[in-house]
Every structure is written in C-alpha cells, then in structure tokens.
Amino acid sequence: MVKQDPFGADPGAWLRRNTPDAPVFFFRPATLQATAQRFLRGFPGAVTYAVKANPAPCVLDNLVAAGLRTFDVASVPEMQAVRAACPDAALHFHNPVRSRAEIAEGLRLGVQSWSVDRLSELDKLAALPPGSEIAVRLKLPVPGAAYDFGAKFGAEPEAAAALLQAVARRGLTPSMTFHPGTQCDAPAVWERYIAACAGIAARAGVTLRRLNVGGGFAAHRGAGPAPDLERVFARIDASAKAAFTGPPPPLVCEPGRAMVAEAFCLALRVKAAEPGRITLNDGLYGALGEWRDLPAGGRIAVLDPAGKTRTGPAHPVRVFGPTCDSLDQLPASLPLPADLAEEDWLLIDGMGAYSGALVTDFNGFGARRIVTL
Ligand SMILES: *Cc1c(COP(=O)(O)O)cnc(C)c1O
To answer: How buried is residue 212: exposed, middle or buried, by Cβ count under 10 Å (0-12/13-18/19+)?
Structure first.
C-alpha cells in the first residue's frame, strides 16, 4: 500500500502526527529515480534491476519512470509484477534452476535471457527458440563480498567452458554471467571474474554475445562514507577492455541492493525499554531479516515521541524483535542514546533492500506500510 504523505518530506513530522504503532517504511521516489539514473549514466553497459531486492509496485513503477526497461527475475510472480509495471519490459530469468512449469511460463512471457550453471538445466531448456540467449553462470572462490552467492549457484571454470560449448552446439547464443556476492565493495572481485570469463570463453572457442557482471554493488550500510559506485564502474570497464582480445562483449549489470537500499527509511517503535535492552515492533522475522547475516546499524537516528532527535551519549543496547521466538534479536548490541525510552522511534536509513521483501506473518508482526515522501 502506498500512501501519499500530506506532511512533506520529514518522517519525524509524519510520525508525530500519525503515531503509528506498527512499523512504517518511508519511500523517497526521487532518491530511487536518481540512483537509477546514476546506474544508467555511469555503468558501461545495460542496466537491469534484480526484482528480489524489493518487488514493491512503487519500486518497479519508479524504475520504469526513470527509464529502466530490463529486469532480472527468478520466479513467475516476479515476472508478473514486472509485466504489471511495464508490459513491454525485457525479462532476464537468471535463477539458474527452474521447474518445467516456470520455463513454460517464461517462454509464454517472452523471457530474453536465461542463465544456467549445469547441463541438466540446459537440457530442460530444449523448447527455447533457436538463437535464444543463455548466460552460463560462473563461480570462483574470490572473497570480497559480505555474503557469498557462489555457495549455491555457479559452474566452476572447466564446467562453464563445457556448458558454453554445449549452448553453442545446440544453436543457442552463449553469454556469461556471475554474481560477486552481495554488498561487495571490492572492485578487484569484478576484475577477477571478468578476466576469468574472457579466458573461459577463449578456451571454449565461443564469442560471448554479452557479459553480465551481476549485482553485488554495495549500499551505504555502515557509519562511514557511501560506497563509490563510479569507482567500481570504471574498474569494470577497464577490466573488460583489458581481458578480451578485440572489443569486449557488451556488458550488463543487475543490481538489486544498491539500486533500492537508499530509497527507503524504516521507522520502528520502541515497545519496551529497560536499561541496556529494548524491544522493537519489528525484527528478524520482519524487515530486519537480513541483519543476522549482514548487520548494519551505522545509520540510525532515534526520535522521541514528539519527533525530536535524541542526542544522549551512545550506550550499547541489546535489541529484540516483537515475536515470541528467542531467535528474534539482533546479533550484537547497537550503540543507542542513553535517554532512549518507550514509544521512541528508531529511524533506520538505507533500508530499501531485502527488508520488505523478507517480511513474514510470524506472530502477526512485520513491516508492511509504505508512506511515500
Ligand atoms: C540477488 C541477485 C542479484 C542482485 O544482487 P544484489 O547483491 O542485491 O545487487 C542479481 N543477480 C542475481 C542472479 C541474483 O540472484
């Protein structure tokens, strides 16, 4: 649900007037569109959006308004959500494992690119029209991201070369893709992957139609400065030019987190406060679902019930979610103002990615309301 905010761009003013007892996401469409423009202008290739990071209709609509026309999808509901926002959008079905029913639906919806990381999944794509683009997904043991995606998907170099040859033999069009792992602020990871892709394609004797360098771009999570996306873009561009003999294949990226994180701020209310510990109205089963694997916490403001920022000295506070499961607590204490009290709000910035998308119904809690600023 998207509600227009009648009180301007200030979450504090909105909270003071509405005193919601349930969690609220504040959505800044202008920020989302500016981030999309930053990718479209800065990335040296085509830009797609990984829908799983935040599939809310207001997100898809604003990305389309900003000029995005290609979306990375992993399921039939994600394809339907994209089509609802943009009937002629291009779909990249880059979940490398699919049921036959999902493949049939993807064909019906005109998917333009498919990824595979094993021969058995390529076999399942036998009904694709000749020339269809198949992106072979590579995995390498490179650290650098906050969370490794290679643990589940991706073919190792030898298998990737064999897959490329199988794709070409079947009259399909070979591309390559990889994912550096999410929240990756190390351009060297892309450099290693791009060099490996060039070598594997050369060894397989195929020309890549495109090279998709994945998502993984870092969002601003910690207290330090925001990640420098342009530095990563420049390194990707230079790596591709250096890695291939002759002109490199056209590049594609599929950011999720870095596209949408900054566009949402999450307001959580303090249900109970005791010395050194608080209970919030959402937690690990809701919009903080990522926090156990990817803690954040560098960008939190605390507002009192009048909407004023608390400025007391920071103390470590253990933070619990609202459900009756003892797992529902943040893994480490957060530094929060000592004068923090019941019915205060925590305003957490940069919370647009893997937040609303992970909310469960457990115990009847979870952040669902979106207020547009
Ligand atoms: C999740 C995912 C992405 C987006 O990753 P971010 O780290 O959110 O940018 C892109 N491509 C694929 C195939 C994914 O699974």
So the answer is: buried
